[in-house]
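Researcher: Let's run the pair from yesterday's discussion. Sequence first, then tokens, for each.
Model: Starting with the first of the pair.
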Amino acid sequence: MKNQGIIGICLILTISLKNVVFCLCPIRCQCNEEKLVVMCDGAGLDVVPITLNPDLRELHLARNSIKGIMTAFSVYHSLEYLDMTSNQLVALGRNNFRLQEKLHILLLGHNMISTLYCSTFDGLKGLRILKLTGNFIRELPDGIFVELVSLEVLDLSENSIDTISKDAFVGLGNLKILLLKDNKLGHVPSSSFGTLSHVLSIDLDLNNFPILPEDSFVNLANLEKLSLGSCGIRKIHKSAFKGLKNLLYLILQDNLLDSIPTEAFLYLRKLLELNLGQNYMKAIVSKSFNSLSNIQTITINSAPFLERIESEAFLPNIRLQNIIFNHNKKLSYIDRNAFSSFTLLRAVSLRGNNFQTFSEDVLPWSDLERFDLRDNPLICNCSLSWLLHHLQTRNYSESFDFDLTHIRCENPPVLRDLMLKGLSIDDLRCHEYQTQKILTWSFAAIGILLVALLVAVLWFRQRTVNDLKIKCSTVIPDSRHENRYRMDNQLRGGTSQEREWVVKIGRDPYAGRLV
């Protein structure tokens, strides 16, 4: 009986010690046993702790010095969230996640991972988000993600990927977002996109695609957003966007395009937003966005050579609602017909351009809910009196997201840096402007009158000269004939001296004119 009591006590102690071992919370970590969440971010760990609750759901291990995982996670079968961002992981090995069927989110960004194996992600059939941002991955081999049948977001940004095998994305039937930003791709991996017909968004920013060839995205029928910023694009084939029948958002900013690729937009009938900022076009010519019948927002910021927006530049884009043209340092001209017949236009931002004035009939100012004209070198004279009246009489306090007082004058010097809204008509010198306008028109009218008078005088003089020439050509031959007749008679009937004098006159017509 005594021995049985001792054995019972030993069993109780064993069980108790066992629970203590498995539930030990590391120093500098926070363990919530009720929610089954452990926070060990920045705890100075160099290995994955294996003494936590086996039923753990969330494990945060960011900003530590962990170099490997091996079979550390085999203890935690119920894990749903794992964050190992900013550690020192060099490799993920093979089959190290095979027991994490419940894992939904796996964050492995900013480590030193360079190689992925076909069995690296085996077992992660419930994974929805995988982030491998900021590693050293160079290649995506065939079938590498084949087990990730539930994956919705795949982030491979900021790696060194230059090769993507044709079947690298096989198995990703539920993928919605693919991020390949800031890699070393030298061409659009069109063949690799063949299995991604359900993807909604692809980010290819900061790669190197000088040319977008024909059928670059032909397999992405359901794509809604495509980002191609900072890719060095110089030319876009007219069929490059073929197949993108559901595309809504297209980003082409910070490339080397010297004109609007109008023909390439032919297949983008549903496009709602377009960003063409930081390209090299000099003008937006007539019907540049001709096929974009549903476009609502066009953004062109920081285009270094953009100078003008020409007549009917946005026709027939009658659904256009937002125009954002900011910080184009040479943009100084908008044709008054550039935005004609735009009844849905609601917001216009022309901040930081080179406009010295704005015409009242360029935009439907009264219909706009928002507009931004800040940081332009405005000449505050009577030509802006309409804008002054507009700012002073309409209440924008609730609908605007910036202070209208920031619309300030650049010239004349006496008004420099003063807010336009605070000026008066007298400050704009409208009386002087009207007087100057009258004088200008008067001098112009006088100039035109003088020119007309001079032309009339010259015409009359030329006509007189022509009349004199005609008269001379008819009288002079008759006079010569009559003189010749008289000389012949004198030669026949006169003395020898008279005949000599007549002969002399015949040789020299001026000899007989002395009186």
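Model: Moving on to the second of the pair.
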Amino acid sequence: MKVRGAVAAAAASVLIAGGIATATAAHAAVGCQVAYEISSQWPGGFGAAVRVTDLGDPVDSWRVSWSFGAGQTVTQLWNGSFTQSGATVTVTNAAWNGSIASGGTVTFGFNGAWTGGNPVPTAFTVNGVPCTGGVPTPSPTDTPSPTGSASPTGSPGPTDTPGPTPTSAGPTTPPPAPQACDLYAAGGTPCIGAHSTTRALFAVYNGPLYQVQRATDKAYADIGLLSAGGVANAAAQDSFCGSAGCTITKIYDQSTNHNDLPISWGGLWKGPGPNGADLGADAKALPITVGGHRAYGVKVTPGVGYRVDNARNAPTGSRPEGIYMITSSNYVNQWCCFDYGSGENSHTDTGNATMNAIEWGTACWFADWGNPKSPCVGTGPWVEADLENGMYHTNTGSNKDPNNSGVHFPFVSAWEKNNGTTNFTLKYGNATGGGLTTPYSGALPRGYSPMKLESSLLLGTGGDNSHNGQGEFFEGAITAGFPSDATENAVQASVVAAAYH
């Protein structure tokens, strides 16, 4: 469902009457268009995406308001912040997306609740001015002659003084292509954590990707993007680090939850760092190109681990969750655990079903620890689900499918989703071309329903900080909700378009 915020003629007259005064006082032409799309809907809930186009002069900050008509409420929003008073919702920009150029756009999305009906809003304002889909301009007759009399022939009188010059909307800038987390949001399963050292996972993101520390003087630097929605500025790392060693000390969360991943403090299994902490990855160890531009991935050697506890808006208990990451078959092993996903806040094993993470490697856990032991068909590497006390290829444990003997691509897209009660699904793909393969989608293992998720997000280790795994990480996201196959196919296509090499 899609509606454009082009308001009826009565509302347009309000804009002409009140909007021009505001524009004149600010010496700026005000004009905007709002596209509101209900991207998904389910009993009692829905997801929506909102795109604002600036048809007037550039703005440095924005505030979008509308009123719901049937008692709907916003429950979670990304790419901005919101307040709701009764039916009226007001969304303000995030710190990094306040500026909109003439002809430019900004997008945000949200999940909402409804009862009885979910009609789309019909009127929107931006910075207090109604959006009509155009730029209001006063007509010359709105400026009366001081005397009202005709001027002498051949001499311009007061009525010949032209009115304010209409302001052109300027050239239209096409909106940036939606990135992975825009697509998840459009599917009603927003990213609660979006981590990458190579590129933006939101089309409008223009903040830092990761932080590095220089070995010689312990100074820090944030590494950002070449442009909003684009690729990492690897030259900034090269310039800062020079010939000195550099360590990745933090991977920033691109979502508004700010679930950044610092180096883990350790856990049940002590890391090799100070006071049992884990280590950061060598910032120079994994050079690649994305879209023809140099970038650096995260090479997780044994002992490297990143983690944030009590992550904001992370699914807990039996709430559904989805995960994807881009990794590689070039650097794997059989040990626990090269994971990305959710784990325990205590960094200890708190029992079955307290984790939901992608495990990538050649581990055949049930061949070593199963009772009875259950060897795998093939040698891997595989996409597995680390659900705590088991790395599952299927609900019974080990892979028995001869068509899933191992995944071998320089860049692998790995996928896992879990609805918390009845299903978990594993997928993989070639991150440089093609679609997705689903080696398993079915029931949860015995004793794992319902799930008991905790809200620690981790990369490179197991839930109890088991840190003997190894792997390569380029990007990934964790979602609230169980992503649809269509959404995952769209994200896979966006990854392929990123052109990893």
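Researcher: Give me one sentence on the second I can quote.
Model: The chain is about 10% helix and 30% strand.
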